[in-house]
TrEMBL record:
Belongs to the glycosyltransferase 31 family. Pfam families: Galactosyl_T. PANTHER family: BETA-1,3-GALACTOSYLTRANSFERASE BRN (PTHR11214:SF349), BETA-1,3-N-ACETYLGLUCOSAMINYLTRANSFERASE (PTHR11214). This is Hexosyltransferase.
Length: 321
């Protein structure tokens, strides 16, 4: 009698962890997903209070002040108040506006606010005044607020700096070859791409349902079995027409926690195709001399400004940056 109970107990003791594991791995969740092709819609919920923010600093050339001719490329760098050293390195390297005598380039850093001291706030203000390249608003700077930061860039470009041919959005821990960006875009005022260009490293993937993941997504948050195609948000390019349309459509669509998924949703809604180019590296490719990077447009993993500057200088000497 006792033995029988004991056996049952052992069985339960084995089954329960198994069920918990299945649940943690999200296997059951997958069964409940909706077919994207048949059921996709967005927004999912009807309680979307738009996030309000106010600009604290604007770039000095807002509304085309002091700008004689339209830029070929505007670089919008997603940064944070504390990353001053990265901004200094970027201004000297791939963010240098006068890199090419015949190509007009503008540079903007996108910032929010941190739990900052008055001193940090004053420093950001002084930096903005000195360089005139800071766009900063009073939303809290955090990983899951990156969508707000990106949309702030789209909004400012759309409403206040809308005559650039192309816009490059990039994180401040990237290496970028502006030379390869310009080559990718093509020569002259025209480009060999669609008028509506949204380009970068494209993913066609499915939501992560195992609960250990930093990128875990519940059915409540997103019930479908795949994402719309999306461009990784660390580095991507929009043509002027695509940017204006993305903002126009995006302003009516509630934000999503992940900025690259959100832009994918907006592009899907706006019928803007995403253009895949594997030379936008979202991981860090090992740097093994200039030849190894000759075709790279952008690479993640250069959060150390000293290393980034060294690599960029070598590549520039080799004529690849
Ligand atoms: C959202 O709520 C508003 C007002 O309550 C309503 O008019 C609208 O139809 C709702 N939209 C959806 C998609 O349920
Ligand atoms: C384009 O920019 C100008 C000034 O920079 C602004 O007056 C105009 O409203 C902008 N266009 C759009 C569509 O927002
Ligand atoms: C994002 O910013 C808003 C507005 O400042 C703030 O209320 C919210 O807490 C921030 N989100 C995170 C994850 O910090």
């Amino acid at each position: 009698m006792l033995k029988k109970h004991y056996k049952l107990l052992v069985k339960c003791a084995l089954v329960i962890p198994f069920i918990i594991l299945v649940d943690l791995l999200g296997l059951l969740t997958h069964l409940c997903e909706l077919d994207f092709d048949r059921h996709y819609y967005y927004p999912l919920h009807n309680e979307s209070a738009p996030i309000e923010y106010e600009y604290l600093q604007l770039p000095s050339f807002t509304d085309n002040r002091n700008i004689a001719e339209p830029p070929r490329l505007t670089i919008l760098v997603k940064s944070a108040v504390g990353n001053l050293q990265r901004r200094h390195a970027i201004r000297k390297t791939w963010g240098y506006e006068s890199r090419f005598s015949d190509v007009h380039i503008k540079r903007v850093f996108l910032l929010g606010v941190t739990d900052e001291s008055d001193a940090a706030h004053d420093a950001a203000e002084a930096e903005a005044k000195h360089y005139g390249d800071i766009l900063r608003a009073n939303f809290r700077d955090a990983y899951f607020n990156n969508t707000i930061k990106t949309m702030m860039g789209l909004r400012w470009a759309s409403e206040h700096f809308n005559n650039s041919d192309f816009y490059l959005f990039v994180d401040d821990d990237y290496y970028v070859s502006i030379k390869n960006v310009l080559r990718f875009l093509g020569k002259g005022r025209q480009s060999h791409h669609n008028k509506e260009l949204f380009a970068g490293f494209v993913f066609e993937s499915t939501p992560l349902r195992h609960k250990f993941s930093k990128w875990y997504v519940s059915l409540e948050e997103y019930p479908f079995d795949r994402w719309p195609p999306y461009v990784t948000a660390g580095a991507f390019i929009l043509s002027r027409d695509a940017l204006l349309k993305m903002y126009e459509v995006g302003r009516t669509i509630p934000l999503f926690r992940f900025d690259d998924i959100y832009l994918g949703i907006v592009a899907y809604t706006a019928h803007i195709p995403v253009h895949h180019c594997e030379r936008f590296l979202f991981h860090k490719m090992p740097y093994d001399g200039p030849e190894s990077f000759s075709n790279v447009i952008a690479s993640h993993g250069f959060g150390d400004p000293v290393e980034m500057e060294r690599v960029w200088n070598e590549l520039r000497s080799a004529n690849y940056a």
